[in-house]
From TrEMBL:
Keywords: Cell membrane, Membrane, Transmembrane, Transmembrane helix. Its main location: membrane. This is YitT family protein. It comes from Pacificibacter marinus. It is a multi-pass membrane protein. The lineage of its organism: Bacteria, Pseudomonadati, Pseudomonadota, Alphaproteobacteria, Rhodobacterales. PANTHER family: UPF0750 MEMBRANE PROTEIN YITT (PTHR33545:SF5), UPF0750 MEMBRANE PROTEIN YITT-RELATED (PTHR33545). It is found in: Cell membrane. The keyword ATP-binding does not apply. GO terms for cellular component: plasma membrane. The chain crosses the membrane at residues 20-41, 47-74, 86-106, 154-172, 178-195.
Length: 204
């Protein structure tokens, strides 16, 4: 077998670390933009944002707290290594989300433009994290666990959760902001669906 035909090597510890710092920093900046616009997103991050609006609590602390119940599912479904990486990523997001607002602010940010750019940034950060064996925890882990236990597809679990999340958001947020939030969430899912292909990106 020639060198060009050899299987890709595993990511090193340094490569994993830089991917997690890069990915969580990009996602945290996107969440800071979302919060400055008063928008939400899907999955656990969206739930944490909505809770932080309702109870006027720091997003970083809420995001860290809402992910705690899901680590057990992550350990059972994906193993200790995945759980440790996921915990590290969630902790970094929680930290960055509290620090970044001290370093940057937005005097003017168009909500449609902001929603789209947040979608692009979030997808980029998430792909870096996923390709290095981590995640941002939450509903995605639970969805895989439910799929294993019941054969009900994980994608449907996530879709149902997001539908419920945005329905609840509509009771607490102006409808135009909910619409912009849906735009941003759609962009995230579209970018990941098109660009994250396990048959093409197989290094771990």
């Amino acid at each position: 077998m020639s060198k060009s035909e050899k299987s890709p090597t595993k990511h090193t510890l340094f490569e994993d670390a830089q991917a997690f710092v890069y990915g969580t920093a990009i996602c945290a900046l996107a969440l800071v933009m979302l919060k400055s616009l008063g928008l939400v997103t899907g999955q656990t991050a969206g739930l944490a944002l909505l809770i932080s609006y309702i109870i006027d609590a720091p997003f970083g602390w809420v995001f860290f707290a809402v992910n705690i119940p899901f680590y057990w599912f992550g350990y059972k479904r994906m193993g200790k290594k995945f759980m440790v990486k996921t915990f590290a990523c969630v902790a970094l997001i929680s930290l960055f989300a509290e620090v970044f607002p001290m370093l940057i602010s937005f005097d003017h940010l168009n909500p449609a433009f902001g929603a789209v750019m947040v979608g692009f940034m979030s997808a980029s950060g998430l792909m870096a994290i996923i390709r290095h064996g981590g995640s941002l925890g939450g509903i995605g882990i639970l969805a895989l666990y439910v799929q294993d236990a019941t054969q009900f597809k994980a994608g449907y679990v996530q879709l149902i959760f997001d539908a419920c999340l945005f329905a609840v958001a509509a009771f607490f947020m102006p409808l135009p902001l909910v619409a912009y939030s849906l735009l941003g969430a759609a962009v995230v899912n579209m970018v990941i669906a098109i660009n994250h292909r396990r048959d093409r990106y197989i290094a771990t």
